[in-house]
Design brief:
single chain; alpha/beta; Chitobiase, domain 2; TIM Barrel; 2 domains; eight-stranded parallel sheet; 19 strands; binds acetamide; hydrolase; beta-N-acetylhexosaminidase; GH
């Protein structure tokens, strides 16, 4: 049946069922809508006595379904709306690849192999992280990503909405965020350790609150939950360009030279002050974002790569730390994120953080940790009782190239292959059962320093994303993954995804000698990983007890 991700069980029965264009779908309206959305190319109609019937089945879990294709028609039993949607997605994969086109060819008729698929996800968090801060992705790219995710049963879209290089949402309460923070005059084109060169091309963009509402609704209809990230207190150049009064250096009435929206990559020293007015400011902005998105069960608050020097240098911040009875600025970092997480909890959202926030201790117990610096810190977070979403640089940072080769377009480093992703085990056997139970799932990261647009995103996301989808849905890359992937790429062709072919880039995807030139071997992912793992050990040994 060549399904991807591999379902829990499938039994082909031999023979085919013809499905007419405009086939009727019957059942409760909410489930019918989900099936129709997944199979839009068939233009299915709601009605009585349909060729396709869908019904709820309380014995099935969340996102689960049973799909029966017999001579008499298609019967779907679904644990919930998402289960009905995924049954529709599986049915679409059972059709020829043309079912992944936007419209059917005139006179198209469809046939589905007879059989039964019984399916449930191994992990509840099957995520894609998209950095729309370094390079803004217009909302059409977000919708497209949601569509491609839905075809892979991926269900969390983590939008990295702010970084030093840009702020990407409208704020009515603090309009300078989008007026000043959402654009930069130019972007660096040189690589690490090269003489800096710039493109001198303005870059920017932001989502209006109405756009966010549209994105939230579009995603929800396709069983995708948007996880907005406001990365604080570091990575703050764009926020501080807009509102310099929240600069840690501006405490005590000082007026330092304000930061500007950054035009280059790397870790910047720009950091927000942790004082109560900053917490109020951020809580207000996050309220605007979640208010627009609609139901937002998770909000990511960052916490990564903070340079705390400006906190240590501010008498007001040090006095505030002492007032709170905290022993160090890293304790204050933890306190600050906890204050934000408490404010989110009051509004019904769980906080998500990068692993630095765990290492500095004192998180709310219900805070979800994204360990990007390796399995050591991932396991410690799970052992400490935090739910964990696996996001390790290796093999889930897809801004690394697939190969260490001159042929690749420029990447942050290399190399992470489809096989590396397919071999990833989110909940390793070597962990205790208790630790494994805290693994919610896994997510691939598309940091966009070297991903200027949707075409570049397509190339880096797929087919490695297909492997992650299988790992997260099925628990591991299952039987015949490579052969199924070959068939599946025909679906992506029909969908118009400009993925990286398994044999390497197409002629027009080569790096070339211009601004897209790759520097193979300049940054090696295994060396990066080793360095990051060492950092988490050092931090851990000096960590205050929780
Ligand atoms: C990260 O890569 N700074 C989470």
């Amino acid at each position: 049946m060549d399904l991807l991700p591999l379902p829990s069980a499938s039994t082909p029965a031999g023979g085919f069922l013809g499905l007419p264009h405009g086939a009727v779908v019957s059942g409760p309206a909410e489930l019918v809508d989900a099936v129709r959305l997944a199979l839009a190319v068939l233009d299915p109609r709601p009605g009585e006595g349909g060729t396709i019937t869908v019904e709820p089945d309380a014995s099935l879990g969340a996102e689960s379904y049973v799909l029966d294709v017999t001579d008499g028609g298609v019967r779907i039993a679904a644990g919930d709306r998402a289960g009905a949607f995924y049954a529709g997605q599986t049915l679409r994969q059972l059709l020829p690849a043309a079912a992944f086109r936007a419209v059917a060819a005139t006179g198209a008729s469809w046939s589905v192999p007879l059989g039964r698929v019984r399916d449930a996800p191994r992990f509840s968090w099957r995520g894609v992280h998209l950095d729309v801060a370094r390079h803004f992705m217009p909302k059409r790219e977000v919708f497209r990503m949601v569509d491609i995710m839905a075809a892979h049963k991926l269900n969390r879209l983590h939008l990295h909405l702010v970084d030093d290089q840009g702020w990407r949402v409208e704020s009515l309460r603090h309009p300078r965020l989008h007026e000043v923070g959402a654009h930069r005059p130019r972007t660096i084109t040189s690589y690490y350790r090269e003489e800096p060169t710039f493109d001198e091309v303005p870059h920017g963009g932001y989502y209006t609150l109405e756009d966010l509402a549209e994105i939230g609704a579009y995603a929800r209809a396709r069983a995708v939950t948007v996880v907005p990230e406001i990365d604080v207190p570091g990575h703050a150049s764009a926020i501080l360009a807009a509102y310099p009064e929240f600069d840690a250096r501006a405490t005590g009435g000082r007026r330092p030279e304000p930061f500007t929206v950054l035009d280059r990559w790397g870790i910047s020293p720009a950091i927000l002050s942790p004082l109560p007015e900053t917490v109020d400011f951020l809580t207000g902005v996050i309220e605007e974002i979640t208010g627009a998105l609609g139901e937002t069960p998770y909000v990511h608050i960052g916490g990564d790569e903070c340079v705390l020097d400006d906190w240590a240098a501010s008498p007001e911040i040090v006095a505030f730390q002492a007032e709170l009875g905290l022993g160090s600025v890293s304790d204050l970092h933890a306190w600050f994120l906890r204050r934000l997480a408490d404010a989110l909890a009051e509004r019904g959202s769980r906080a998500v953080v990068w692993d630095e926030a765990f290492v500095s201790g004192r998180l709310r117990p219900d805070t979800i940790v994204m360990p990007w610096r390796g399995q050591g810190v991932a396991r410690r977070a799970a052992a400490a009782g935090h739910d964990v979403v696996q996001t390790p640089v290796f093999p889930l940072y897809f801004d690394y190239a697939e190969a260490s080769s001159e042929e690749e377009p420029v990447a942050i480093g290399d190399a992470i292959t489809v096989s590396d992703v397919a071999a990833f085990v989110p909940a390793p056997e070597s962990w205790t059962d208790g630790e494994r139970e805290h693994v919610l799932g896994a997510q691939f990261q598309l940091w966009s320093e070297r991903l200027p647009d949707g075409r570049a995103v397509d190339y880096r996301a797929w087919p490695r994303g297909c492997a992650l989808a299988e790992v997260a849905w099925s628990g591991s890359a299952g039987n015949g993954f490579d052969a199924r992937l070959e068939t599946h790429l025909g679906r992506l062709d029909a969908l118009g995804v400009e993925y990286r072919p398994l044999t390497g880039p197409r002629p027009w995807q080569l790096g070339g000698a211009g601004h897209r030139r790759h520097r193979p071997g300049a940054v090696k992912v295994d060396e990066v990983m080793k360095h990051l793992e060492e950092m988490t050990h050092e931090a851990d040994s000096t960590r205050p007890s929780m």
